[in-house]
Amino acid sequence: MNSPSSSRPGRCAQCQRPLARCLCPLIPSIEAACPVLILQHHSEARHALNTARLAYLGLQGTALWVGEHFEDLEARLAQARQPVLLFPGPEANVVESVPQDEKPDLIVVPDGTWRKARLILHSNPALQELPRWLLPEGEVSRYRLRKAPDPQAVSTLEAIVRVMQIMEPGRDFSPLLRPFEHLIEEQIQAMGLDTYQRNYPTST
């Protein structure tokens, strides 16, 4: 499990973006509706669009673990009374509202491509014992720079924002998406609009 605060020369120690394009001024500090544990596949940690890190930085009460097999996971799950896994599956319950007495005290979120997220589940059998939550169908993902097999697939950050909003509908968690949207626009500008439209024709 790597430290989420590790950085590279010439990059911000927090958001890990190049210093000239640091996202930190756009990242809010919002109290989570429930503690969140993000299990990020190690291959995602240096991805240019690292939305798990944006969630970790902007949402108080979030932990970010990087790896594939997590030795401390069982101990962390044992500390929780009602942990849930935010990941689709045949026994997953669509979460549309959460009564106060049914609130979990830990939401575990695997982060990576579908294949890598499933590798995390396979490598950590304790996750397979958790009740699963599935987000209801909603808005199309704003993650316009990654092709997903399912039009309802969303980024890790978007999934976390949606589940927080479901748990506490009276609060606004949308500021967490500001750095994400800025980063996407920056990437589109860098590649050029023509190139973007050729590669992602259904995103415009």
From TrEMBL:
InterPro entries: DTW, DTWD2/TAPT. Signal peptide: none annotated. Keywords: S-adenosyl-L-methionine, Transferase, tRNA processing. The keyword Membrane does not apply. GO terms for molecular function: tRNA-uridine aminocarboxypropyltransferase activity. Residues 8-192 form the DTW domain. Its EC number is 2.5.1.25. Belongs to the TDD superfamily. DTWD2 family. This is tRNA-uridine aminocarboxypropyltransferase. It comes from Alcaligenes pakistanensis.
